[in-house]
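Letters spell out the chain; backbone shape is given numerically. Both lines appear below:
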Amino acid sequence: MKFPMPDVEQFFQTLGIKDFVISPTEEQLIISTNINGHYNLWGMDLPNKYPYPLTFQNQLTHGLHYSKTGDFILVGFDRDGDENIQLYALQPCGGNLIPIRKAEGEKHYFSHLTNDGKRLYYTSSVGNATYLNAYCYNLDTQEEELIVEGTDGGIEIMAVSDDEESIIYSKHFSNSNTRAFIRRNEQDISLTPPSEEEHMITEVVFTSDDTVYFTTNYGSDFSYLAKYNLITNEYSKVLELEKEDLTTLKFDKFKNQLYLISTSGVEDRLFVYYLMKEQTSQKACCSRICRP
């Protein structure tokens, strides 16, 4: 029996994973994948690896977050790529989506959910289609508070301290000029010293209520790790790698260490920065590291 050569369309029918999240107990893995031909959320009860469907939206996800209480998942969906992202809550077992922030023709970008799962920080085009506004929404009382009103450049919430006294937001002026500011006690503090020189701030984490680590190329050709102390209002350079851009930054609170990904040519490198020892250790090097 002679079979014809495979059609080129066959090679475009591939499976992909858009996003994933793991429950606080690490017992459930939720992935956004196109197993059924369209992107939906699927769950796996670890260590079992057989997926089961959670949603039937047939839409790409834009942000996926498991509440630390383990009660629900927050997820963003648009409609057929229109980029008007709406935020929904979903039970870990699936079922109906509960609209959390939804408005026709508007955009809602998830930023942060408090540890108790009661307050949602997000950025939205509602009330400010040009520069966006930052809001805090109480899921229990359904009350909303305007945190930052966007002016001069598009804004986005980057991080919120555990005590919620400090909020870091970015202000995007151009593809080579994105600044970050701390909103604290109704005042805005720049993470980098005042400068007319264009620079980028790409990743930000709170390691305590008064300490911020971030990646920036302020005053440099390559991005590096910097620190800002909210008590002393001091900026300092922490880690700079020769001819490498630090592009990704994650904080491990349990181990008190930072995970960093650097880019050098076609290679990505994974580093760990130990906050107590102020030392760095390289953990991996490959042609590409998947960023969370």
In short: The mean pLDDT is 93. Residues 113 and 120 are 5 Å apart (CA to CA). The chain is about 0% helix and 50% strand. The first strand starts at residue 17 and ends at 22.
